[in-house]
Every structure is written in C-alpha cells, then in structure tokens.
Design goal:
Largest sheet: 2 strands, antiparallel
Shape: globular
Number of strands: 8
Structural class: mainly alpha
Distance between the termini: 54 Å
Radius of gyration: 25 Å
Strand content: 5-15%
Strand order of the largest sheet: 1-2
Number of helices: 15
Helix content: 55-70%
C-alpha cells in the first residue's frame, strides 16, 4: 500500500469485526443488502446533481451544438453530466467512509483478511485520485478543448496512481507465475512477501552493500497492462457514447454484472479488496441510474468526455481489481461483461483500416449508428441494452458454472456481432468504391468493367448478395 494511502487512512478506524457486533451477512443477497446504502446515496446524489449541472452548463455556454451530420440531436444539449455522475460516485464512497466510522450504516461482510495497518479506507486513495484526474481532464476538454495527447497523458497519470497502490498489478501474476512454474523458473517473495518473478541486474560494483538491482517482473508487466487497460477502456467508453442514454445505461448493466461477480468473490472471501469492489460497483450503478432519466432520449444533458472517460475508468478499475489475487479468469469475466464498448472500438479500428482512413477519424458506422438507421434512437439504444445484458449475464455466469463453456459462448457471440457489423460496413465501402469507379468511367478516366457500358447506371452488390442499382447519393456517403 502506498504512503499516500497510509497517510489518508490514518484518520479512519477499522470496520467492526468483533464477536459482539451484529451478525455479518452471508449469501450474495445478504451481502448486497448490507452495502445497499452506498447505492441509494449515489443514486440520490446523481439524480439531484444532474439538473443543477445542466443549469450551470447552460449558464456558461458549455453545450454540445449539432454541427456535424453524424450527431443525432437537433438542438444544443448541455454538457457537465459527467460531473453529476462523479458526485454520485463520490457520494456513495463517502457514505462508505461514514460506514466505517458509524457501523450501523453498513453491515460489513465477514472476512479473514486483516489489514496491514490499523486504519481502513473503503476505496484506495489512488482510485479516488485517478477518478478526479480523469474527470478534470474531461471537463477541460468539454469546456475549452484539449489535444488527444493531453487526454492520454491524464489517463496515464491515473494508471500510474493505480500501479503505485498495486491496484490491479497482481493480475499479471495469474499469467506469468504459471508459465514460470511450467518452465521451471524459480519464483521469490518480494518486499511485501508476495510471490513474484525477480530479475536481478548485476552492478559493476556494490552500492550500499547491494551487488545487483532487483526488478519485480510481475509488478512492471502488471503496470503495463494497467496502462493499456485504462487507455483502452476509457476511449472505448468515449466512442460508444453516441446516442442518448447509451453509455450510462450499458455501464449500469455492466455494473450489475460486475456486482454479481464481486459479491461472489466476497462470499468466497477472495481477498482484502472484496469490500472495495462491492462499494465501487454499488456507487457506479447508483450514479448511472440517477443520471439515466435525464440522459435517456430525449436527453436534456450529455455525459461529455468527462463522463464517458470517468465511466470507462471506473469500470476498468473494477475489472482490474478482480485479478487482485491472480485470478485472470475473473478479469476475463469482467472484460466479457463490458464487451460491448470493447467490440465497438475494435470494429472501428478494423473498419477504418479497411477503408484506409486514420484510426482517429470519426465516422457514422459504429454499432449504434447502424442500429439507429434501422430502429431509430430509442430502438437502437434498447437493442444495445439487450446485447449488453447478454454479455453481462455471460460474464457473471463465470462465477456460477464452468468457465470454459462461458468463455466459448462469449467468443461465439462476440464474433457474430463483429462479423455482422463488418459485413454492413464493408458493403457500404463497396458501394462507395463502385460509385467512384463509375464516376471515373463516365469521365473517361477508367476503363469500363466487362459487360458494363459507359453511361449505364452503376450496379453494385445488393444486401442479398446479387446485383442491384446503386443507392441514390452513394458517391457522397
């Protein structure tokens, strides 16, 4: 645990575990009920703070204007919804802190893990710091606009704060240590007594009695994974935030799935971060539910970059914490639960590569755009809610049934969604390419295709796979 956390927690007592206290909850539902105050407080704070943030945004002109064709709304909509969500999450966490001081507020689940210090902070300070930095970077981007490099820098700072407090670092142990044992590579305890792989770099001469520099391989690999995960999930959440209520709703669904897994881990007394995971899941779920009524179509306020990056970061932290004891299968379950934004982002990268465009180039071919054209805004959002709920159910099932079958089902479903989306996007690219070719033929800059005369109407592949007339305006799409 970092010195910063030790300093902050010096003012907080440990949660009660004496035999004289009320009976501790057993079973998933009982544990859930013990922490339910966190969810209620975060919901109430978010639902009250959201209209206040909307008024503040309108007063200072912090609004999103519909100045691009791919934007769905037709009137300016206020930003700063992310601040309301942040306040909701922090409200739930503050309630948990009060629950440490006043035991009647939260009924803590039983655990055999003792804290290495005499005081306890329900959520590590490194997580609170990371959430605050992510929010501030997003707010600055919403208000004045900043370069992508600065946003990435803020995300890396938040990732570094997590690594300093070893939040999610041990996930790498579940990958590296089994490989080391298989290859016969010896493992050793680090300074904290945690099993790891130590790489010793010899020094030309002894310095302070040491002849080598020890490198904790698990820690540094875990730190790299944290950095990639934070950047990836923050931006995945940002990319899918394209329809009213989509990100806040799908994150709430993911929070439910993650909460089921977290409750199962607490029931099994997995490790010292069990309560932290539950509190974060509850706070995230309550804040999303409190914000959603204001954000669902027709929305009166948007999350903005501040909110989308915050939701991605908080979800990422919960997923990383599931590997705190080296159980990578539970981290994989968390990734499945949050698979919808990940799949959408992966498809965007593949699609833009196929079209020869920069990865950062915006387009209107995301999953929600494709569904909106067929089902409308509300229909598309509800359909994506259903897909998100399916992934959340599959991921949560890892703690209930055999994991291998669950992972296979998730791979099949993810592949089906991905291939279908690529087919639709690829068909559009083929139509545009055919239209450009016909325009060149009409001007005499390209030879005509076999069986097609110059001046004939363009014929492209229809959705059924056969020839058909070119869609009107295909050259412009």
């Amino acid at each position: 645990m970092s010195p910063i956390t030790l300093a902050i927690t010096a003012f907080l007592p440990v949660p009660p575990t004496d035999a004289g206290e009320p009976a501790v909850p057993t079973g998933r539902l009982a544990i859930f009920e013990g922490y339910i105050g966190v969810l209620i407080v975060s919901f109430l704070v978010a639902v009250i703070a959201t209209p206040l943030m909307r008024r503040l945004a309108v007063a200072y002109g912090i609004i999103d204007r519909p100045n691009e064709a791919r934007k769905v709304h037709t009137v300016p909509i206020a930003y700063l919804g992310g601040v309301a969500v942040y306040l909701g999450i922090m409200g739930g966490i503050f309630f948990a802190i009060l629950g440490v001081r006043f035991p009647d507020l939260i009924q803590w689940h039983t655990t055999e893990f003792q804290r290495p210090i005499s005081f306890y902070l329900p959520v590590p300070f490194s997580i609170l710091l990371g959430m605050t930095v992510i929010l501030l970077v997003g707010v600055i981007d919403d208000v004045t606009g900043i370069s992508p490099r600065v946003k990435i820098g803020g995300q890396l700072f938040a990732a570094a704060a997590l690594a300093m407090d070893r939040v999610g670092v041990q996930m790498a142990a579940g990958i590296l240590l089994p490989i080391a044992r298989t290859l016969g590579i010896p493992t050793q305890p680090n300074a904290l007594g945690i099993e790891t792989l130590l790489l010793k770099i010899p020094l030309p001469l002894e310095i302070a009695g040491a002849g080598h520099i020890p490198i904790d391989v698990v820690y540094w690999v875990g730190t790299g994974i944290i950095a990639v995960a934070v950047i990836g999930l923050c931006n995945a959440a940002n990319l899918i935030d394209g329809l009213d209520g989509l990100l806040s709703g799908t994150t709430a669904i993911a929070a439910i799935g993650l909460l089921v897994v977290a409750l199962g881990m607490a029931l099994a007394d997995d490790g010292p971060r069990d309560a932290e995971r539950i509190i974060l899941c509850m706070a995230l779920l309550g804040a999303c539910l409190g914000f959603l009524p204001h954000n669902f179509n027709p929305a009166t306020i948007f999350l903005g970059d501040a909110g989308s990056l915050l939701l991605g970061f908080t979800t990422c932290v919960i997923i990383l914490m599931m590997g705190d004891t080296g159980k990578t299968s539970l981290v994989a379950a968390g990734v499945i639960i949050f698979a919808l934004p990940i799949i959408d982002t992966s498809l965007a990268i593949v699609r833009r590569k196929l079209e020869g465009r920069p990865i950062s180039a915006a387009d209107d071919q995301h999953l929600h755009h494709q569904l909106k054209r067929a089902l409308g805004v509300k229909g598309a959002v509800l359909a994506l809610y259903g897909i998100a709920a399916t992934f959340a159910t599959i991921g949560a099932a890892v703690t209930l049934i055999r994991a291998r079958g669950v992972f296979l089902l998730a791979i099949i479903l993810g592949a089906y969604v991905g291939v279908t989306a690529i087919k639709i996007a690829r068909r559009r690219a083929v139509e545009a390419q055919a239209a450009r070719h016909d325009a060149r033929v009409a001007t005499g800059l390209a030879p005509t295709s076999p069986g097609v005369k110059a001046g004939d109407p363009a014929r492209v592949v229809s959705p059924a796979g056969g020839p058909g007339p070119a869609a009107p305006g295909a050259a412009n799409r």
